[in-house]
Design brief:
The structure is a single chain. The protein has helices at about 15-30, 40-55, 70-80, 105-125, 155-175, 200-205, 215-225; strands at about 10, 30-35, 60, 85-90, 135-140, 180-185, 235-240. By secondary structure, the protein is an alpha/beta fold. Helix 1 (about 15-30) packs across helix 7 (about 215-225), helix 3 (about 70-80) packs parallel to helix 4 and helix 4 (about 105-125) packs parallel to helix 5 (about 155-175). The protein is globular, with a radius of gyration of 17 Å. It starts with 7 loop residues before the first strand and ends in a 6-residue tail after the last strand. This is SDR family oxidoreductase. It holds the Pfam family adh_short_C2.
Length: about 250
């Protein structure tokens, strides 16, 4: 038996990058997995096939995390079509950077809608369905701990908000046997931030390990938090950042 047999997970932003790696890893651990994507249906469908290749059920949902109704509907459809919900991974995010006097109201509103409001609403909807042993895992960012370059104030602010969300929900849901934790990935080799990108060498040099993570390495941390061995871990902020914050 694998550690998540009989469980159902929802991974927001699961069509690519860390979200896709997490969705596939949770399936490999035995969970049926729903995932949301915003625009790239073809790529999300590939992730769905990878989940099914593990022998688990996949549910691929189009949902813009900036839309409150779409966020709630993703949770509701997961429960309706996969029968339950045990694990929520709040992974979907936007990364809008620039000088504080160069980002306008639109950028502010979208960042807060996707990176802060959506995790809150998804957790709110999930909490109505999670039972004892339930898991909420938020995906933050290393730049919530350390902003090494200018232009990160908006994104850093949005990801720092997840610390408060995680700790508040951990306290509130703990009596029900539900854990809530936050993973702060460091630089990770994805399409949006490739390890061979123009600034990658400098960014990698800010970590103690001197390299980018593979998405599967972040997914492994999430899978541990989702499993039974992490049942006494809640309200924790876990830096899977290669030593970026030290």
């Amino acid at each position: 038996m694998t550690t998540l047999d009989g469980k159902v997970a929802l991974v927001t932003g699961g069509g690519r990058g860390i979200g896709a790696a997490t969705a596939v890893r949770l399936a490999a651990e035995g969970a049926d997995v729903a995932l949301t994507y915003e625009t790239n249906a073809e790529r999300a469908a590939v992730v769905g096939k990878q989940i099914e290749a593990t022998g688990r059920r996949a549910l691929v949902l189009a949902a813009d995390s900036a839309d409150p109704e779409a966020v709630r509907a993703a949770v509701d459809r997961t429960v309706a079509e996969l029968g339950r919900l045990d694990i929520l991974v709040n992974n979907a995010a936007v990364f809008l950077v620039g000088p504080v006097d160069g980002l306008g109201r639109d950028e502010l509103d979208r960042t807060l809608a996707v990176n802060v409001r959506a995790p809150y609403l998804a957790a709110q909807a999930a909490a109505r369905n999670l039972g004892a042993g339930g898991r909420i895992i938020n995906i933050g960012s290393n730049v919530a701990r350390r902003a090494p370059f200018p232009g990160l104030a908006l994104y850093s602010m949005s990801k720092t908000a997840l610390v408060g969300l995680t700790k508040g929900l951990g306290r509130e849901l703990g009596p029900r046997g539900i854990t809530v934790n936050l993973v702060n990935p460091g630089p990770t080799d994805t399409d949006a931030n490739p390890a061979d990108g123009p600034n990658a060498q400098a960014v990698a040099g800010l970590t103690a390990l001197g390299r980018y993570a593979a998405p599967a390495e972040i997914a492994a941390v999430v899978a541990h938090l989702a499993g039974p061995d992490a049942g006494y871990v809640t309200g924790a902020v876990i830096d899977a950042d290669g030593g970026f914050a030290i």
